[in-house]
């Protein structure tokens, strides 16, 4: 057969070579895709696991949709938990017993929820990127009142506007803080959504040119905003009244196993818990050390504290948003960490 091919005209030989090469390449690509799907798409969502004898980890609530992709959550004063879909913009409220109900909204549509915060009066603040495609830019901050009315709360009015807004929190005075990773800024708005200003930018670090303030949480014990940077794996504490005096609490700085910080929460005693998205874990900041208390979540992008003894964790499973060959491991769910021993190491 080889001799017959060699006797053919050059053009036909090239065509046969192209068909053989192309077919072989197609087979290799197909096998690679199948391997990726098999590796990244287990039949059942893996469960979070405790890494400490002082806690337990359990599934808290299963979300009803196959495209829920919960990127954020927030715990209300009455113990109810709010979460929303990054893919569809649907919003759910969950009782402390894990009973899930859709939130009926009216007014402005919600499209791609990345951040949630609840004011003492029950008003819900929502960071909406408006498009789940990770290649797109834009977004805004919306506000939902008790009757479910959603309205645009705040925008940045310069030519760039919000580029990649991520998280939101409030201080004791009701000011609203919003991070924008692409602008490398944290913006502050008053309770009416006006008087917006670029309140904080990360201080320069040696050898660092890119910054991405991401997660936000209010530290009531110090009247400060605690901020993560997902690009540099840093954690800052910034006084509300003195943003120029920020304190660098942690910098992973090139060490192995980068945490990939995302959301975070601060207890009333000032203890900081961090969602380490890159390590699929939840960590406590103990001085200059990260102590992992739980792991093996499916994309822990956010964590929030519920008094007196719980942390709620999202399972975002975000990888399948960017890689079409990967499918989420269903069902989408939130997990709960329960502290058996309330003795913790305070974050200084």
Polypeptide structure, described:
It is a single chain. With 348 residues, this protein is mainly beta. It has two domains: 40 residues; 292 residues, TolB, C-terminal domain (Neuraminidase, 6 Propeller), CATH 2.120.10. Helix content is 12%, strand content 39%. It has three helices and 26 strands. A five-stranded antiparallel sheet has the order 1-23-22-21-20, with no helix packed on it. It has a five-stranded mixed sheet with strand order 7-11-10-9-8, with no helix packed on it. Strand 3 and strand 4 form a beta hairpin. The longest helix has 31 residues. The N terminus is likely disordered.
Provide tags for this entry.
348 residues, Neuraminidase, 2 domains, five-stranded antiparallel beta sheet, 3 helices, 12% helix, globular, disordered N terminus
List the helices and strands and how they pair.
Blueprint: H1 2-7, H2 10-40, E1 49-50, E2 55-62, E3 70-75, E4 81-85, E5 91-94, E6 100-102, E7 106-107, E8 113-118, E9 124-128, E10 140-144, E11 149-154, E12 165-170, E13 176-180, E14 185-189, E15 197-200, E16 213-219, E17 224-229, E18 234-239, E19 247-251, E20 261-266, E21 272-276, E22 281-286, E23 289-295, E24 303-306, E25 310-314, H3 319-322, E26 333-339
Parallel strand pairs: 7-11
Antiparallel strand pairs: 1-23, 2-26, 3-4, 4-5, 5-6, 8-9, 9-10, 10-11, 12-13, 13-14, 14-15, 16-17, 17-18, 18-19, 20-21, 21-22, 22-23, 24-25, 25-26
């Amino acid at each position: 057969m080889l001799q017959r091919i060699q006797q053919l005209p050059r053009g036909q030989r090239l065509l046969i070579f192209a068909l053989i090469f192309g077919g072989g390449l197609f087979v290799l690509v197909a096998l690679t895709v199948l391997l990726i799907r098999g590796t990244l798409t287990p039949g059942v969502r893996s469960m979070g696991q405790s890494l400490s004898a002082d806690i337990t980890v359990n599934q808290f609530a299963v979300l009803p949709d196959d495209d829920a992709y919960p990127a954020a959550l927030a715990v209300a004063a009455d113990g109810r938990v709010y979460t929303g879909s990054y893919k569809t913009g649907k919003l759910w409220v969950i009782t402390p017993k894990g009973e899930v109900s859709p939130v009926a909204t009216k007014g402005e549509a919600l499209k791609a929820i990345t951040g949630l915060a609840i004011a003492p009066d029950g008003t819900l603040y929502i960071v909406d990127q408006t498009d789940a495609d990770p290649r797109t830019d834009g977004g805004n901050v919306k506000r939902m009142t008790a009757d479910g009315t959603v309205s645009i709360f705040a925008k940045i009015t310069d030519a760039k506007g919000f580029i990649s807004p991520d998280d939101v929190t409030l201080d004791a005075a009701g000011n609203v803080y919003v991070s924008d990773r692409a602008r490398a800024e944290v913006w502050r708005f008053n309770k009416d959504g006006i008087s917006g200003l670029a309140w904080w930018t990360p201080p320069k670090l040696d050898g660092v040119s890119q910054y991405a303030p991401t997660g936000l949480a209010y530290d009531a014990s110090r009247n400060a905003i605690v901020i993560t940077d997902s690009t540099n794996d840093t954690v800052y504490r910034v006084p509300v009244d003195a943003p120029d005096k920020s304190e660098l609490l942690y910098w992973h700085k090139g060490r192995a196993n980068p945490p990939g910080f995302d959301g975070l929460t601060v207890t009333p005693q000032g203890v900081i818990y961090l969602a380490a998205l890159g390590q699929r874990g939840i960590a406590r900041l103990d001085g200059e050390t990260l102590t992992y208390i739980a792991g093996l979540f499916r994309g822990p992008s956010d964590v929030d504290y519920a008094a007196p003894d719980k942390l709620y964790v999202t399972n975002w499973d975000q990888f399948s948003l960017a890689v079409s060959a990967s499918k989420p491991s269903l069902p989408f769910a939130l997990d709960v960490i329960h502290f058996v021993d309330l003795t913790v190491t305070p974050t200084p």
